[in-house]
Amino acid sequence: MSQEHSIDIFLGLDVGKSEHHACALDRDGNKVFDKPLPQLESDLASVFHQLQERGSVLVVVDQPNTIGALPIAVARACGCEVGYLPGLAMRKAADLYPGRAKTDKRDAFIIADTARTMPHTLRAVDRNNEVLSALKMLSGFDDDIARDCTRTVNRLRSILTQICPSLERVFAGSTLTRTPILDMLIHYKGPQGLKRAGYQRVLNWMIKHTRKDPTPLVDEIFAALKAQTVIVPGSDAAELVIPQLAANIKALKEQRDTITEQVERMLDDFPLCEVLMSMPGVGIKTAAQILLAIGDG
């Protein structure tokens, strides 16, 4: 933060889900405000305007995202400067103050006093906050979907291993998550459905649904089916579950593709993105994660 010398009031917010604790100090360290503050725009704006009657105000939070996003947005709308105190700097600063009890009131005072006396410890809140916030939300959502997809794929593998291990081995690695394979499992449901359809019908169906010659893969599938003559208990129920799991995996993959397209459009706003993506091994999602880590400079 480079404007600390023009600040008259330093407002520290120990942010919470429904309520923050606010502590405001003047340049001399005198408390001019020290109360809980509801997580409501009207209450936040009222306190910010009240403090602005004493001069320029710097609002400092300990968490600029999620529960700290509203105070920052309201502070900016009111014309206040904003910043945040990183967790490590907060913990080091806390060691300089008497007492060990961790209370909202104490933390808010430490945030405000650290902003007043050690402004070099503060970090700017990203100027292009809208795009970075959107990137953060989409990246978090993509991470959730990726975990859901991995969990669903593992469940599908587990069922195939239970009822027909040789068929599961045909779908090694990423083969199981390829769209033609998922579509085949949705259509034929599982080992018994494939056997009933027969080699030629399955081959003809695969030819219509894939660009590559599916003959080697279909040969492997039916060789695996031929290797097992017994029907494992639970196979009928498995053929009800398999197409649903395959459909879920396909839908999750499509969601991730949509998110990738949205992230790519957002990254067009960052000149640095072209530099990042020119590096070997850095794609859209990795570039987004790097930008989220370093901010907008």
Automatic annotation (TrEMBL):
Residues 11-165 form the Transposase IS110-like N-terminal domain. It holds the Pfam family DEDD_Tnp_IS110. Keywords: Coiled coil. Residues 242-269 form a coiled coil. GO terms for molecular function: DNA binding; transposase activity. One of its GO terms (biological process) is DNA transposition. Signal peptide: none annotated. NCBIfam families: transpos_IS110. This is Transposase. It comes from Corynebacterium epidermidicanis.
